Amino acid sequence: MSRIDAASARSLIAANPDVLVVDVRTPAEFESAHIDGAVNLPLDQVDAHLRRIVADAGGRMLLICQSGARAERARTALDAAGVSDLAVLDGGMNAWIASGAPVTRGRPRWTLERQVRLVAGSVVLASVVLSLWIPAAVLVAAFIGAGLTFAALTDTCAMGMLLAKLPYNRAGGADVEAAIARMARRPSRDAA
Question: Which of 17, 38, 161, 169 has the fewest C-beta atoms under 10 angstroms from its C-beta?
């Protein structure tokens, strides 16, 4: 099982209380809305602590992000490192919320996708306007367009990764130690 829809995820969580929901979004996105009982382990922290996660992990994990792309990258990294019994919520929190599933809400924050649209659109608009006086400024708009095209083709986003590091997106911070500890305390399905 690698990708599951929101209805299947709800059934999985209800049927198996040992399923650990791991939310790989930024702490700010997690604070806005998350699945009750989920742990926040941002994608960059998954990569940074991969060895510890692999050594300590046990049991089934449901990986989630905003749309599914970051969770899929986390699944790929964890799977390649030897962690099994992983599932990705297809469509992420967007699909979870759209299905009417319950969420724990906090202070509203902009998602990374929305922030990328704001920054990219602002840079393109500013460079096009600036190109009225400095014609070469249109090259900045072309660069952003090329970057967005590359992001779509590779399902990665350098701008999103940079924005994730801003203090706004780190607000509240993820308790990485607590998240990894919760992974370690869970029973392994192989032991059952």
Answer: 17
Strand partners, 63: 22, 88
Query: What does the alpha-carbon distance between residue 87 and residue 71 come to, in Å, rounded to a whole number?
Result: 9
pLDDT tens digits, residue range 103-156?
999 888 888 888 889 999 999 999 999 999 999 999 999 999 999 999 888 877
pTM equals 0.76
Return the ∠ at Cα 128 (arms to 123 and 133), rounded to 5°.
120
Q: How far is Cα 121 from Cα 93, in angstroms, rounded to an integer?
A: 24
**Measured between alpha carbons, how far is 115 from 71 in angstroms, rounded to an integer?**
19
Rounded CA separation 114/147 (Å) = 16
Based on its alpha-carbon atoms, the radius of gyration of the chain, rounded to whole angstroms, reads: 19
Strands 104-105 and 33-34: antiparallel
Alpha carbon of 165 to those of 18, 138, 156, 192: distances in Å?
31, 27, 15, 40
Q: How far apart are CA 33 and CA 71, in angstroms?
A: 16
Maximum pairwise Cα distance, the chain: 70
3-state helix, strand, coil in the chain (%, to 5): 55, 10, 35
Rounded to whole angstroms, the Cα distance separating 127 from 133 reads 10
